[in-house]
Structure formats: C-alpha cells, structure tokens
Amino acid sequence: MSAFKKLALAATAVALFAGHAMAQDKVVNVYNWSDYIDPSVLDSFTKETGIKVVYDTMDSNEVLETKLYAGNTGYDVVVPSNLNLKREIAHDVLQPLDKSKIPNLKYAWDKVFTALATYDPGNKYAVDYMWLTTGIGYNVAKAKERVGDMPMNTWDIVFKPEIISKFKDCGIYFLDSPDDIIPSAMRYLGLPPDSKDPKDIAKAAALLQSVGKYVKKYHSSEYINALANGDICLVIGWSGDVLQAKTRAQEAHDKTPDKPLVDLAYAIPKEGALISFDSFVIPKDAPHVDEAHAFINYMMRPDIAAKNSTFLSYANSNLESQKSIDPKVLNDKSVYPDDATMAKLFTTTPADAKVQKLWTRTWTKIKTGQ
C-alpha cells in the first residue's frame, strides 16, 4: 500500500471516529420540576435521537429565576411557570423559538396556547408542557369523619376557620406559593384575583392569617408523599400532584393489601380556581440549541405527550394526544375540567417591583403568623 493510501485511510478513520464521538457527545441539559416526567420518555428520546439527556430537578421558580438572571446556567431547556415566564421574557434571558424545528406544534391545543399568550404574547418563547389548577386535595375517609357529606369543592373548606379547624389534628399543608394562595383567597372574598391593590392584598392576608394557625406546613413538594402515606389529610395543592399522590397510595396498597387504602381526591373549588402553565423554554445562553428544539419537539409528539399525561395525571397542551391518554386521566374532570368549570378558571399577571415587595412581605407574615 502506498504512503498516500495509508494517509488517506488514516484520515478517513480519524474522520469517522470524530463523527462517532460527536454523535456520542450530543446532549441536552434539562432543568424541570421533580416527579414531572415519565422516566421512560427520557430513555426513548435518547434511543431515538442519540441525544443524551442530563436531567436536573428544581423545587421552585425562584431558584430557576435566580439561575437565569445570573447567566451561564448550562441548561438548554427549563420549565418556568406562567408568571415567572413573563418576567423572564421581559428580562431578556430567554431566546425566541425556531418553530421550524418544532413541527409537532401543529398538534398544539389552541385554547391552551391562547391562554398562555397572556404571559408570552404571540407564543414566541414558550411551548406549554402541562397545565394545572390550584385546588383542594384531601383524604376522603378523614374528610368524611370531620365534615360528613359536605361538598369538598368549595374554598369554604380551607378558608372558614370553623371548618378547616376540624382537619388540624390530621395535618394540613398549603402550597408555599403566594402566587397561588393569595389570588385564591381574593377570589373567595369576591375580589379580583389579579388585583394589585394593597387594600385587596391586605384583605386576603387577613383571611389567610385567620386560618394559618391550623396549617402544619407550607411546602411545594413534600405534600405528595405526605398525602399518599396518610401523614396529612388536607392540602391546597396542584391538581396533578394530588392525583399523583392518589396513584402512589393505590400502588402502596396493591403491594400491602392488608393495610387500609389511603383514598385521596382532588376538587376544583366552585368559586373558581387558578389555572397555571408549565412551559418549555430555551435560555438565551443555552449551549445546545438544536438539541433543545429536538427535545421540545419530541415532548410535543402526541404519543409522548399522552404518555407523560397518563404517568403524571396532568393535562397537556397537545389536542391530538387525547386519543391516547388513559381514559382514567382523560375523563377525570379534576384533570380535564368540563366547559362550565373551565369558564370559572382564572389567570393572573406578574406584579411590578413595588407590589412584589409588598406581596413577599405579606406572605412572610402569613407563614410566620405575625
């Protein structure tokens, strides 16, 4: 073999090796909420695309926002909630999506994306992953012991001292989220839930302080297992989280049928409830932009969106996926509400800096009981 041929073969081998290494090095760094995806979906994404998923979990929008504002997060896809999404767009820490790289957007549910546009005008930056409501989760048996056949689909359960006090002995958690709790209290009081008026905020605070002494803990992740284990009996929580707790309780009972089933339920209050959106976005300095688009597009594939909704008991924004969602989830009106209930759901908008300070100060007082 000539020296020239040897060099040519060597060069080809190097090129092939380099190409293989590059393919192996394809990665997407994702920062999402805990317990918020079917793990098998991550495996199938890597198998089908060759892109490795480095998956980190977060427990608050505030932590995510701090990372985004500081820059150089190293993440390619993150999942903020609606109010934070609007702030992050305003702070120019996200990049517009290249929708040509997300062809599965053709399956987007218009109703959901129209509502999401409240926070992302023109739907330029975000693709909704899941949407949810904030309502009441409860232990069915313990609720019946304390309030009999009283309907649980009312904010009276958690905002009337004479009622919530009956649940104190079996444990009550509220979301550690003023963005969810304060507007819910305003709605209950007949005030505009998106009010930024300090007088309205004060009225909501007074109501929440009147029931705060019965709340065991304010938290945003522990209550799933606490409900499932029977450690608590009443929460203000997110729809999908409560239904995940219900699934876990059933699974635990199936493994040890000699132990009583912890039967859980979720109710959307008839007075109206907050609807929220958790969306995929790409940070402005994302290191793997093409892989980020590929990940988002995969999550919008109808069969994949259906798999995640079935696993999570959360509603997704993919209309076509409803053909494949487990009927137990799809037909559950606490996940996919009927039109009458949908009409009573409300959205809120971010506060300006001055109101946000008042909001934060008010929430601290509510939690500490001062």
UniProtKB/TrEMBL annotation:
Keywords: Periplasm, Signal, Transport. The keyword Transmembrane helix does not apply. It is found in: Periplasm. Residues 1-23 form the signal peptide. InterPro entries: SBP (IPR006059), Sperm_putr-bd (IPR001188). Required for the activity of the bacterial periplasmic transport system of putrescine. Belongs to the bacterial solute-binding protein PotD/PotF family. This is Putrescine-binding periplasmic protein. It comes from Labrys miyagiensis.
